[in-house]
Amino acid sequence: MRIDLVSLFPEFVAQCAGFGVVGRAQERGLLSIHGWNPRDYAEGNYRRVDDRPFGGGPGMVMLIDPLRAAIQAARAADPTPTQVVYLSPQGERLTQAKVRELAGRERLILLCGRYEGIDERLIAAEVDEELSIGDYVLSGGELAAAVVIDAVARLQEGALNDAESAAQDSFDEDGLLDCPHYTRPVEHELGSVPAVLQSGNHAEIARWRRMQALGRTWQRRPDLIDEAGLSKADRKLLDAFRAGPGADPAKST
Ligand code: ADE
């Protein structure tokens, strides 16, 4: 997958993307990231990329032309057609379902704004979709772009060492939160590892994990339970969680 990043700070995102799974995905040739700085396409001695908003008010608005030239340069750098995604608090909220959709594309241009935003005419002409990573305001789209890149990179086939771990994540196909995880030692002053996980009984372990995933989602994100459309078996497991010590994973056996 190819991601082009249009940003005043492309190095910032490149740094974030240099570590861990995303760094490895790049090394393995599963993902390439290319930065385009609108300042390189700005005119005049000051290479201006922003100006005051018409109608008054605080802050600055990013100019059309440097951004447009940077987007066009990014488009022209590869023949694969691409969509332009603008990171902004006004966008559709990013979900794991959306991440899966983005991860399946061959190419993506991520457009990062700074200041109060971008001239609306550029958005109307060049942007295919707007994405928000949450209901809060960042000082620019770069961190949001880094979030998108990370989430999309780890879904590229071969990016994760253990192919299982992406399938079992929170928000996997059914949109539930993840179950709790434990490692050695079995006994610790902070508590013991639930006995079922040491039993070697794979069916029981799977049942316990499913129950914990359902229970946690019910406790922490009841909105997701409503959306999940639980099967009869899941409803029974959730009832068992709500009735028993499963409500506290550290105490369940
Ligand atoms: N830019 C500023 N705030 C943002 C947000 N919440 N999501 C995406 N891009 C942003």
Concise summary:
This protein is of the alpha/beta class and 253 residues long.
Number of strands: 10
Name the CATH superfamily assignment of the largest domain: SPOUT methyltransferase, trefoil knot domain
Architecture per CATH nomenclature, i.e. the level-2 architecture of the largest domain:
3-Layer(aba) Sandwich
Domains, number:
2
List each distinct ligand once. adenine
What sort of overall outline do the alpha carbons produce when their principal axes are compared? Answer: elongated
Q: pLDDT average, as an integer?
A: 94
Largest sheet: 5 strands, parallel
- The portion of residues forming beta strands comes to 15-25%
Give the structural class: alpha/beta
**Quaternary structure classification:** single chain
Please give the CATH class of the largest domain.
Alpha Beta
Report the helical percentage. 25-40%
Sheet with most strands: strand arrangement: 2-1-6-5-8
Low-pLDDT runs of 5+ residues are none
Description:
- Strand 9 and strand 10 form a beta hairpin.
- The protein is an alpha/beta fold.
- The strands form three sheets. A five-stranded parallel beta sheet has the order 2-1-6-5-8. The protein has a three-stranded mixed beta sheet with strand order 3-4-7.
- Helix content is 38%, strand content 16%.
- The two termini are 44 Å apart.
- It folds into two domains: 152 residues, 3-Layer(aba) Sandwich (Alpha/beta knot); 82 residues, tRNA(m1g37)methyltransferase, domain 2 (Trp Operon Repressor, Chain A, Orthogonal Bundle), CATH 1.10.1270.20.
- It is elongated and about 70 Å long.
- The protein has ten helices and ten strands.
- The model has no long low-confidence stretch (mean pLDDT 94).
- It binds adenine.
